[in-house]
Amino acid sequence: MMKYVLMVIVAFVLWLTAPLWMVNHSTGPVETEIDQYIEKQKKEVSKLSKKEQEALRKYVEKFGEKPKIRYSTGTPILVQNYWKKHFKHPEAIVELRCTPLERTDKGWMTVCDYRAKEDSAGLSIYQDVYYINKGIVSK
User: Fold this and answer.
1) 15 in a domain, yes or no?
2) Beta strand pairing status for 94-98 and 107-117?
3) Which DSSP state fits 34?
4) Could you tell me the residue range of the domain that residue 117 belongs to?
5) What's 91's DSSP letter?
6) Within this chain, do residues 101 and 53 fall inside the same structural domain, yes or no?
7) 81 and 58, same structural domain?
8) How far is Cα 66 from Cα 41, in angstroms, rounded to an integer?
9) Residue 1 burial (10 A CB sphere; 0-12, 13-18, 19+)
10) E strands along the chain, which residues?
């Protein structure tokens, strides 16, 4: 008998405290000041990203698409082709690394560190700045 009374008391206590622990699904979401602030920030970021997208579109129109790179060293494929054309021993070039491509007023820019064999001097270390403008590489 005592356990039935205890179960009734527990059920009554749960019924009384239900507003504290149960989620009310009957009302819509309540927008707080924090929610309003977050929405405002999202709108500002959206405006900024639209401006950035437009700037990138204009840049690509002027200097061409961002060149593809080798994943291991970050060397743009166009720079590798440039080395093959301009070095006496292109097969002896050892790519060390290239900086990520950046937008500049001369085109896409990267700085590459590499070793190359020229004449009989052995491997020399080079660090050059390359600009890529519509697929054409220049130092």
Assistant:
1) no
2) antiparallel
3) H
4) 77-138
5) G
6) no
7) no
8) 29
9) exposed
10) 94-98, 102-104, 107-117, 123-133, 136-138
Which residue's structure tokens are 């403008």?
133
Q: Which two tokens stand for residue 21?
A: 């622990």
Query: What string of H, E and C letters represents the secondary structure of 56-82?
Result: HHHHHHHHCCCCCECCCCCCEHHHHHH
Amino acid at residue number 126: Y
- C-beta separation of 93 from 87 below 8 A: yes
Residues 87 and 134 in one domain: yes
Q: How many domains does the chain have?
A: 2
Each residue's pLDDT, cut to its tens digit, for the chain (139 residues) gives: 888 888 989 998 888 887 777 776 666 666 778 888 888 888 887 887 888 888 888 998 999 999 998 888 888 999 999 988 888 777 888 888 899 999 999 999 999 998 887 666 667 788 999 999 998 999 8
For 132, the token pair is 């890529």
CA distance 104 to 85: 25
